[in-house]
């Protein structure tokens, strides 16, 4: 029994050492995909949790972090510099994590597209195009969007040939009537889609970009209990304290207006689950389930219309939240060691 215990301890120490080496440039785990992270980091803090998790995931090569805008006047950030604020927030998290990284952090457009035929211009749009057109790597490219679709829509309008060179994973869109019912007092249009309806219309109605969609009924499954925030995240050094502090402060502010109970939805974390945590062999997010649907046509009001010319897209219906959160807890603990 003692020998077995000692062996397991040494194995754990060895694994932790290797993993830590990878976090600072070792070779225990090597990337098997590229990702560009595009999120409204000055908005709902779930994007920051997702960002921290991805940056601690050695199987992905993060090529860029894009700070994106919110809807004009959004309560999270009512300023006119939302994208720049988002980029600054991402930079602050990277600094808190103490990671030596050459990953560019870029501000996207501070405004939505004026219509579904006019792209915005930004450094972020240019980066997406350049990365998608690379020929010096065989690693597949995923664009991970946890908010609006301004940058990817603008990129594919600017250079349509990128459409078949990446996969878009998007947290957003309302429920499909044949798959789920909306929650009580639901917002209409759905929050992330409403950030830039014109951009969503470009991506769904006009482009041929492969889409893995995590609609509202599914991203609402990513529920973190407050008890786990206190026990699994908050004690884990500067990063755990930083993330839990942001979320606790927000929960306190919200509680003045709405009793939100003892959970919080980290709805952007599936972006990690569907990439970094794919299965080892025959790689795919095999512990989460999806259906193939014809891409709907998004109308000017931000609702789904049937589109008989639509292409098949993945619509995720069930998430493996245990894998997703337990992996995050473990990586935070390893970082803190």
Automatic annotation (TrEMBL):
Q: Would the keyword Ribonucleoprotein be found if you checked this record's keyword annotation?
A: no
What is the phylogenetic placement of the source species in the record?
Bacteria, Pseudomonadati, Bacteroidota, Cytophagia, Cytophagales
GO cellular component entries = cytosol
Q: Report the protein name in the record.
A: Twin-arginine translocation pathway signal protein
Signal sequence span per UniProt?
1-19
Q: Which GO terms describe its molecular function?
A: purine nucleosidase activity
What's the short name of a Pfam family annotated to this entry? IU_nuc_hydro
What does the record list as GO biological process? purine nucleoside catabolic process
This protein's source sits in the domain of life called Bacteria
Domain named Inosine/uridine-preferring nucleoside hydrolase: which ranges?
A: 35-280
Q: Which UniProt keywords apply?
A: Glycosidase, Hydrolase, Signal
């Amino acid at each position: 029994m003692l020998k077995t215990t000692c062996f397991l301890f040494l194995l754990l120490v060895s694994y932790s050492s290797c993993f830590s080496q990878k976090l600072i440039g070792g070779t225990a785990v090597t990337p098997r995909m590229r990702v560009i992270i595009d999120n409204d980091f000055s908005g709902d803090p779930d994007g920051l949790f997702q960002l921290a998790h991805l940056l601690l995931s050695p199987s992905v090569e993060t090529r860029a972090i894009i700070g994106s805008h919110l809807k004009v006047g959004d309560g999270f950030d009512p300023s006119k510099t939302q994208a720049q604020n988002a980029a600054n927030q991402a930079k602050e998290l990277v600094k808190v994590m103490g990671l030596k990284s050459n990953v560019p952090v870029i501000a996207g457009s501070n405004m939505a597209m004026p219509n579904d035929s006019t792209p915005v211009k930004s450094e972020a749009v240019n980066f997406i195009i350049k990365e998608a057109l690379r020929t010096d790597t065989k690693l597949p490219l995923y664009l991970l969007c946890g908010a609006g679709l301004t940058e990817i829509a603008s990129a594919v309008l600017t250079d349509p040939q990128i459409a078949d060179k990446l996969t878009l994973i998007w947290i957003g869109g309302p429920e499909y009537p044949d798959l789920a019912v909306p929650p009580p007092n639901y917002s209409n249009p759905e929050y992330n889609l409403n950030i830039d309806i014109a951009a969503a219309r470009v991506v769904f109605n006009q482009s041929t970009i492969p889409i893995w969609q995590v609609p509202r009924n599914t991203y609402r499954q990513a529920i973190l209990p407050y008890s786990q925030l206190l026990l699994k995240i908050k004690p884990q050094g500067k990063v755990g304290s930083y993330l839990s502090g942001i979320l606790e402060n927000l929960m306190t502010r919200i509680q003045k207006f709405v009793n939100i109970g003892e959970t919080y939805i980290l709805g952007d974390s599936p972006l990690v689950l569907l990439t970094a945590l794919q299965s080892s062999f025959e790689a795919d997010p095999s512990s989460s389930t999806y259906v193939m649907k014809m891409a709907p046509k998004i109308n000017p009001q931000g609702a789904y219309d049937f589109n008989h010319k639509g292409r098949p897209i993945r619509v995720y219906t069930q998430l493996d939240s245990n894998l997703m959160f337990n992996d995050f807890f473990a990586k935070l603990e390893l970082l803190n060691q």
